Predict the structure of GNAT family N-acetyltransferase.
Amino acid sequence: MIVRPYAPGDDAALYDICLRTGDNGGDASHLYADPRVLGEIFVGPYLRFEPSLAFVVDDGAVAGYVLGARDTTEFSKSCEREWWPPLRERYPREAFPDGTPDARCVALIHEPRRADPSVVDEYPAHLHIDMLPRVQGHGMGRALMERLLTALHDAGAPGVHLGVGAANTRAIGFYERMGFATLETSDRGRLMARRTGAAAG
């Protein structure tokens, strides 16, 4: 079980992991009519624009990943120029019934979330991390996070933020142990952040 840099042949596995962890860390396969739509938002653009900030857990097959963007504002501009336009053609607003998980993803494709300027001023980077159950509890999450935090620091990003669902209490505890502090809370979840560089003890 190792952490290694992302390789182009990993794409399908990363999309699958995104889906299989997309329900507050649990399997979301049964929730989506289109198995790729979640990954098109939370995996694909990172592999396209920030491949050097993508790392995976490999236990003979890819079983987890961390993805980062060093500058959230510039990353959003790149997505708006190159990533979202073809997806908006592929997924028109009326592609799925209102209120379904697929429809909510399509809404994000057409109206991506915008980061709070006051957050990105201090914590310009952001990340996503997901692991399948078989590699959880073996220190791989910490290893992924340490690898990315060091890479972000080396790339000049002084801080990083992330969002986590309110029901994903296991992830919240993990982020707190990794030195992340809560900046904002809502009914939906938390916005958390920390400085880059060496991970928490």
